[in-house]
C-alpha cells in the first residue's frame, strides 16, 4: 500500500470567482482548486488585490513581501474564501483603484503591462521560494496573457519548476511595445521570434506559450482551431510549434451553484422529473419582463455584447424568430453600439423581446430557470459556459458549431433524435442565415412536446461537473511532476 501526499500547485490568474469576474476565466480559476482537492493537489490562487477584492475578505496572513514591486511596496496575504486558498497581492500602486480588473469608465488602464507583469513576477518568486508559512508549490499553472510571463520569468531565472499555461481566449494577448522590455524586467536578448517577440511587439501570451512545459486550452475543438489562421489570431505559428504539448480540456461548471433542484436564486426549484415547475419559472420571468405568453419558445441570451459572441447575428435574426412565435430575453453588457441596438430592438418588439443591459448574476439564474432555450451564436468560443448552464437547467442550448460549443452539445439531427442522444441544436455556417435556420428548427422542435421533453431530459442528464476535467488536469500535473510514493510501514 502507498500513501499519496498532497502537493502544492500555484495558480496565477487575474480573476477568480467569487471575488472578481468578467468572464469564464474567473469561473474556471475558482472551480479548479476544489475540483483538484481530492486528486492529490493543493492549489493556491495568486490574485491581484483589487480594491473590490479587499472589501470581501477579512482575516488575512502576510506570507510574502517586497519593498519595490515595479515601483511600490507589495505584500502577499493568504486567506480562504469559499473553500479556496488565496494569495492576494497587495500592491496599492497597481491595484487600488476604481473600476474593473483591466479598465475603468475611461478605458483600459495605461499601465496594464506593468500591473500583470508584477503579478507574474510575484508568481515566479513564490514558485521558486514558496511562501513564509512553509507552503511551496511543485508546479505552476498560469492563466491567459495576464499570467503569461510567469513561465518566462522562471525560465530566465534558470528555474526548472514545471509550468502549465491555459489559454482561455487567444484573442486577448497582452501585447505591448517592444521598448517596454526593461520596464517589465525582461532580458533584451529574449526579444526573438522564439521567445517574446510577436510581430514587432512584446506579447505576454506568446511568452507563456513559448516557455511553459504544457499549453492547455478549454476544449479539444478549440485546441485544433487554434492551429488555424482563422482562429489563431496570429498565434497559430507558435502553437503549431508546440502542438504536441497542446491539450484541450473542456471546462466544467460548479454544479452546486448551478443546480435547479436547490438554487436559492430561482423562484421554483425543479428537476428533470418536475418540469412543470420549470414552467412556473417561465411564467414568473415573462411577468418580470412584461412579455406576453406566446406559443413558441422563450429564448434567453446571457453574454458579453461583442462581435465574438455573434450579437450582430442575434440582432438580425431576432425579429424573424418573433414572427415564428418565439420570445427573447437578452442580458448582457459590452460594446455600446450593441447595447443601443438591442434596446431599440426591445422597443420595437414590446411584449416579445426583453433586454437588460448590465451584469447581473442573480438575474442570470432566473433566466436559465425560466427560459426554454439558451442561444449562443458565437463566431468562436473556446469553451463557453452558458450552454453548460443550459444543459443543467433543461434550457435547450442552440449553439454555433465551433470550439467548446461543438464539443458539448449534441445536435437534434435525425440521428441525434433517433438515438436519443440529442441535447440541443448546433448550427453552421455561423452567419445570419445559419442562426435563422437554427431558430426555425428550435420552433419546430419545441412544438413537438414529447420530443422536446426528451431533449430537455437528456440535456439535464449530461455530466457538466468538473470531475473528468479535473482528473485530466491532475494527470497532466502528474506527468510533469511525477508523484513520489511513500510506502506505509
Ligand atoms: P466569456 O468568458 O467569453 O465571456 P463564457 O461563456 O466562458 O464566456 O463565460 C461567461 C460567464 O459570464 C458565464 O458564467 C456567464 O453566465 C457570465 N455572464 C456573461 N455576461 C453576463 C451578464 N450580463 N450577467 C451575468 N452573467 C454574465
Radius of gyration: 23 Å
**Overall 3D shape:** globular
Bound molecules: adenosine-5'-diphosphate
The number of distinct helices, counting runs of at least 4 residues, comes to 19
Structural class, judged by helices and strands?
Answer: alpha/beta
Looking at this protein, list some descriptive labels.
489 residues; alpha/beta; 9-stranded mixed sheet; 19 helices; 20% strand; globular; binds adenosine-5'-diphosphate
General description of the model:
The mean pLDDT is 96. The protein has 19 helices and 22 strands. The longest helix is centred in the first third of the chain and has 18 residues. The termini are close together. β2, α1 and β3 form a beta-alpha-beta unit. It has a 9-stranded mixed beta sheet, with helices on both faces. It has 489 residues and is of the alpha/beta class. The site of adenosine-5'-diphosphate has 18 residues, from α1, β16, β17 and α13.
Write the layout of secondary structure elements.
Layout: E1 2-3, E2 7-12, H1 24-37, E3 41-48, H2 51-54, E4 61-66, E5 74-81, E6 84-90, H3 92-95, E7 103-104, E8 107-108, H4 112-129, E9 139-143, H5 149-156, E10 163-167, E11 175-176, E12 197-198, E13 201-203, H6 204-211, E14 214-217, H7 220-225, H8 229-232, H9 236-241, E15 246-248, H10 275-288, E16 298-305, H11 311-323, E17 327-334, H12 336-348, E18 353-357, H13 361-370, E19 373-376, H14 386-392, E20 396-400, H15 403-408, H16 414-418, E21 425-427, H17 432-447, H18 449-460, H19 467-480, E22 486-487
Parallel strand pairs: 2-3, 2-9, 3-6, 9-10, 10-14, 14-15, 16-17, 16-19, 17-18, 19-20, 20-21
Antiparallel strand pairs: 1-22, 4-5, 5-6, 7-8, 11-13, 12-13
The structure holds adenosine-5'-diphosphate.
